[in-house]
Specification:
Blueprint lengths: L9 E7 L11 H5 L4 E6 L6 H11 L4 E5 L11 H8 L1 H9 L7 E7 L5 H9 L17 E4 L4 E5 L11 H9 L10 H15 L1 H8 L8 H11 L11 H13 L13
Parallel strand pairs: 1-2, 1-4, 2-3, 4-6
Antiparallel strand pairs: 5-6
């Protein structure tokens, strides 16, 4: 990223609107310096709109603008060109004064794994050029993609930083799929998720799984969900792996409602 910044006019940083803090690579500020930047809070349809609005106000400053987008439907993407024009107005005025009319802006796209970077690029280019997948680590090399908006995009591999310091960050990244399930204990992860949801979104949990009440013990709540979803196996035991897979899939697919796991307050 550092080596290629000199090739671009601006940076588009994509984050997950549900975890706008945890999905931020803390090294990006130092790497980008004063380079104009647009922060896209992607998957905004899965997050609470009022919380996303708070994040937009919190993140916006002179050389950084934040937008809520949905890279699957294209919601919010039409605003990118005008915001980019605003950030690069001095460059545009300089080139226009020289008689140059058709100005192409070169932009680097960065973001952690599975945040929707490739889906965003494909939607903007209206062509499935960048590989997409529901697993992190699909993009592996730098590539340039042209769009019809006068913007050339440089795609970069999604990378996590070397040390995830807080447990909350680790959990949020794992809940939303930025860390591969294959290297996680997903049964323990589902237990943590139920604990978080029971605290922050109890009604979502009760409504989705038709629960009359929630216990203070997350394992009891997991058992209640398992009973409702028929995850009881021989001997009256619970198939916790099945419950974990279902719970994580339903969170990631928005079936538990609009959930923001982080708030800027």
């Amino acid at each position: 990223i550092k080596e290629n910044l000199k090739l671009v006019d601006a940076v588009i940083e994509i984050r997950d609107a549900r975890i706008a803090r945890s999905s931020r690579n803390p090294e990006v500020d130092d790497l980008c310096g004063q380079k104009p930047r647009i922060i896209l809070l992607n998957k905004c349809d899965l997050a609470e709109a009022k919380v996303t609005e708070k994040w937009i106000k919190c993140l916006t400053r002179s050389n950084i603008k934040a937008l809520a987008v949905n890279s699957i439907t294209g919601e919010g993407l039409k605003n990118i060109k005008s915001v980019l024009n605003e950030l690069l107005s001095e460059k545009h005025q300089r080139l226009t004064a020289k008689g140059i009319q058709n100005i192409t802006d070169r932009v680097m796209v960065i973001g952690i794994p599975n945040v929707g970077k490739s889906s965003f690029i494909n939607k903007l280019a209206k062509n499935a050029i960048a590989k997409t997948g529901d697993k992190p680590g699909v993009t592996r090399s730098r590539q340039w993609i042209k769009t019809k908006l006068g913007i050339e995009l440089m795609d970069t591999p999604g990378i996590l930083w070397p040390k995830l310091e807080s447990e909350e960050t680790q959990l949020n990244l794992a809940f939303t799929g930025a860390i591969k399930d294959e290297i996680m204990d997903i049964e323990e992860l589902s237990l943590k998720l139920v604990q978080v949801l029971a605290d922050k979104y109890p009604d979502n949990l009760k409504n989705r799984y038709k629960l009359d009440s929630l216990s203070e013990d997350p394992l009891e709540n997991l058992d209640k969900i398992g009973i409702k979803r028929g995850a009881v196996i021989s001997g009256g035991n619970m198939d916790y792996n099945r419950i974990a897979v279902m719970l994580l899939d339903e969170l990631r697919g928005g079936k538990l409602g609009r959930i923001s796991l982080e708030n800027p307050d």
